[in-house]
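Q: A reviewer asked whether we had any structural model of the full assembly, not just the individual parts. We don't, so I'm hoping you can provide one. Inputs are below.
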Amino acid sequence: MEFAFTDEQEQLRREARTFLADRYPSDRVAELADSDDGWDAASWAQLAELGWIGVSVPEEAGGAGLGFLEEAVLFEELGRALYPGPYFSTVALALPELSAELQRDAVDGKTRWSASLDGSLVPDLASVDRVLVVRGGDLVAVQAEGQTLETMDSTRRLGRLADGGAGDTVGDASALDRMRTRAFAALALESVGLAQRALELTVEYAKTREQFGKPIGIYQAVSHRLADSYALTELARSLAYWSAWCVAEDDDEAPVAAAAAKAYAGDVAVTVCEYAIQAHGGIGFTWEHPLHRYYKRAQWNQGYGGYPAAQRAEIATAILS
Amino acid sequence: MDLRDTSEEAAFRAEVRGWIEANFPTKLTGPRSSDAEYERAWHEWSAKLADAGYAGLTWPKEYGGQGAPYPHQAIFLEETARAEAPQHMNVIGLGMAGPTIIAHGTEEQKARYLPKILDADEIWCQGFSEPGAGSDLASARTSARLEGDHFVVDGQKVWSSFAHIADWCILVTRSDPASEKHAGLTYLLVDMHAPGVETRPLRQITGEAEFNEIFFTDVEVPVENVLGEIGQGWSVAMTTLLHERATLGFALTAMLEVNVRKLLTLAKERGVDDPLLRDRIAQEWIEQRALRLTNYRALTQLMKTGMPGPEGSVSKLTWSEANQRLTKLALEILGPDAQLWNGDNHGYWQYQQLRSRGNTIEAGTSEILRNIIAERVLGLPRSR
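A: Here is a predicted structure for the entire assembly that you could use as a starting point for your response.
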């Protein structure tokens, strides 16, 4: 039993964190999120060049031939940075379901993908080229056409797919469960990354912000909530890494693990952000401060594919039958 | 990352599982109680564990341990939880006194005390808290006056589990009457059968008396029973508390696992279909998993670096609150009958629920644990 990332995977984490902190600091993310497009399309070529898109794609399809654990590191770091771009949609939802030929184009950065789990709402619809949907017993690739909707989290906008567009069959409906499991694991990882960042910002603030002549972190009404945030984030991290390992190993427990991780980390990230906003006081409630963006992404992740009560209902069925 | 057992770990797991199946006495199923017959059976079970080499798995071989890697300890605890078997009864000896003696003891002390801890020949209790010193251990007032080759101990300790059956006590005393706070404390190993030691049971909200008060009146303790240096008792006591919190994680999680298993069994028996109850059952299952996995991360960190990581500080805090929620949930599933002590589950959940209120108080209150996380893990300024 060994429950830690390898040195190589930790090296990838350091590189990703450095790159994202350099290119996507929070003021840049805010600027992009408030723009019409919501992201910087030029960033996709950078990600392709770094090899991030094809991490788990086999080498013969142009990828790195690594696995979901390496992707897990990236999901966590991209979540921490609130990277606005269709990485989750392309890599977690769609890529593993595509043919080698379609994968090669995606890995090269030529086509971006998303998918719809419910046949209607599509993450990143406006910033991708094609979308996977289930029609009857088929998994079908259609053009990314439809209406982009104003979304609370403007770093990951949702769209509604246009009805009836022609498409190519790329697989069967059994893909849906796999897409869902990968998506849940990826969102759990993102939520852990962003919760960790929101906690760090708040700890820093609590050390420096003074009231009544003392840093506010000295007051247990503040510090104990931050201790809880830490504990919750670590528990969520354990579940998220477990679900990542299950996906990477195609373990039988993967669907339950991903549902558990997504539900728990989804709730935790929202709670940690709420404590963060409260501890920051008035400044945490402003548009100017980055916290609301973490909070909105946390809520996006919490709600995607059903709020946590839906995943817990599934788990209850699994453990009580 | 690999969450499966290695082949060596799998072999050990199979061995433990087979051994428990063959040796676990049915007398020890059902709620833990303090009646004498249960205690006798528990004592026998503990000695049997030691005979089989399952006590002190990670202790050095020269002191009667197995020198086994930490994952063996985790596997052993998981397997006892799976069988719903109780842990070794010498909880304080194995988890606190033993590791502190290993860290600070002389060779004579190690040879004298450690083997008897393992085979439950000598049961240990802890004399830290006092009526005026609970979370604030540094305000301890129990005095130890040096007179030639021995100390004379006077004072009172409280909340001491196992004291009524204990042979030895790890005792924090104030050896310098002029001292205050952390200075001037001395850590003694005290014979509970010495003249002047008196224990009185404290009846708890469960109705049983698991804790005790200990009164020391002119108790003579030989100087060779000082653990560490005279006046350095604070740092020795910190070793004890560090071990209490670090090694406790797996044992606590194993106990929670037993309760989650029983909760699922209960819910299935009762055919729980209320979505609100099912939601909470799932949440408790998830959190128990999260706790176990967090312990695995801490264990991997310990194996890699030799130092426990900060993840460990989360275990006791999380466990205690989870156990409180879970046991209340069980009562709700039982329905109005839950108010009856002798329902069809022999009072298991009623006892567990009431007992769980102690979980956030004993071995470091949740308030103290949050202070520790805030100050030592997050680096926030000290509140005191």
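A: Points you may want to mention in the reply: The mean pLDDT of chain A is 97. Chain A touches chain B at residues 1-6, 69, 203, 206-207, 214-215, 217-220, 223-224, 226-228, 230-231, 234-239, 241-242, 245, 260, 263-264, 309, 312-313, 315-316, 319-320 (CB under 8 Å).
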